[in-house]
Specification:
Elements: H1 2-63, E1 71-75, E2 84-87, E3 93-96, E4 100-103, H2 109-119, E5 130-135, E6 138-144, E7 150-154, H3 160-166, E8 180-186, E9 189-195, H4 197-201, E10 216-219
C-alpha cells in the first residue's frame, strides 16, 4: 500500500510540475507576443508620422510663393558646379550661371525647379534640380483676440496659425478660431481669406495657409449672448 501510495503521489507531483512548466511557457509566449505587437504598433506610428511629415513638406513646396528677399539654395545633383545660393532681387529675378536672369518671385519652389530643369536641359542627365528656401524675411500683423497683438517679423515662410502662435496664441476666453480672416492687398484691392484654424488645430485640415508680406491676420471675438 505504501509503495502504491508513494507511486501515485509521484505521478501527481510530476503532472503538477508539467502543468506549471506549461503555464510558465504560455506566460512567456503571451509577453513576447505583446512586445512584438507593441513594436509593430510603434513602427506603424513612426511610419505614419514620417509619411505625414513628408506630405507636409511636399505641400509646403507646392503652396509657398517665392518673393523678393528670399534666399534660395539651388542644387543640381548631377552637376555640382552649377550649385548656387541666390537672393531674389527687387525685380523678382535671380542670376544663374549659363542662362542669365530667371524670374523667381511669385513662383512656388516646385515651379521654379521645373523651370530650371527646362533651362538647363542640355546640361543635365538626371533632369533633377532642387530649390530650398534658406531664409525668407517678411512682416505680418496679427490683431483681434490674441494674447499679444502686433507686428510679427519672420525670417522664414510662416503660416497664419504660426503667426497667431507668435502673437501669444488665441485668447480662448474670447477668440473664435473657426472664423479667422487674413486681409491681403492684391494690386489695388484688399481681399479677405477666411480660415478655420480650429480645424487645423484638431488635425482635420493639414494644408497650411502661408502669409505674404504685410498680411493682416484678424482673430474675431466669439459671439456670446448676454
Amino acid at each position: 500500500m505504501n509503495i502504491h501510495s508513494n507511486s501515485k503521489a509521484l505521478q501527481i507531483f510530476a503532472a503538477g510540475k508539467r502543468r506549471l512548466v506549461s503555464l510558465a511557457m504560455l506566460s512567456v509566449a503571451v509577453i513576447a507576443a505583446g512586445m512584438l505587437a507593441g513594436c509593430k504598433t510603434q513602427t506603424g506610428v513612426l511610419t505614419e508620422q514620417a509619411a505625414m511629415t513628408g506630405g507636409l513638406t511636399a505641400t509646403t513646396n507646392e503652396l509657398m510663393n517665392l518673393r523678393e528677399g528670399d534666399v534660395l539654395k539651388i542644387s543640381f545633383p548631377d552637376s555640382a558646379s552649377l550649385n548656387t545660393a541666390q537672393t531674389i532681387r527687387r525685380d523678382g529675378k535671380i542670376s544663374m550661371t549659363l542662362v542669365g536672369d530667371v524670374d523667381a518671385a511669385g513662383m512656388t519652389p516646385s515651379a521654379l525647379e521645373k523651370k530650371l530643369v527646362d533651362l538647363y536641359a542640355s546640361q543635365l542627365s538626371s533632369k533633377q534640380v532642387t530649390v530650398e528656401v534658406v531664409s525668407s524675411s517678411l512682416t505680418v500683423y496679427v490683431t483681434g483676440m490674441v494674447l499679444r497683438p502686433g507686428k510679427i517679423l519672420s525670417d522664414h515662410p510662416i503660416s497664419a496659425l504660426e503667426a497667431v502662435m507668435e502673437a501669444g496664441g488665441f485668447d480662448y476666453t474670447k477668440a473664435n478660431p473657426k472664423n479667422v480672416v487674413v486681409i491681403r492687398r492684391e494690386g489695388k484691392t484688399m481681399k479677405n481669406y477666411k480660415l478655420n484654424l480650429k480645424a487645423v488645430l484638431q488635425g482635420k485640415q493639414n494644408e497650411p495657409f502661408y502669409l505674404k508680406p504685410d498680411d493682416i491676420v484678424y482673430v474675431p471675438e466669439r459671439f456670446s449672448m448676454f
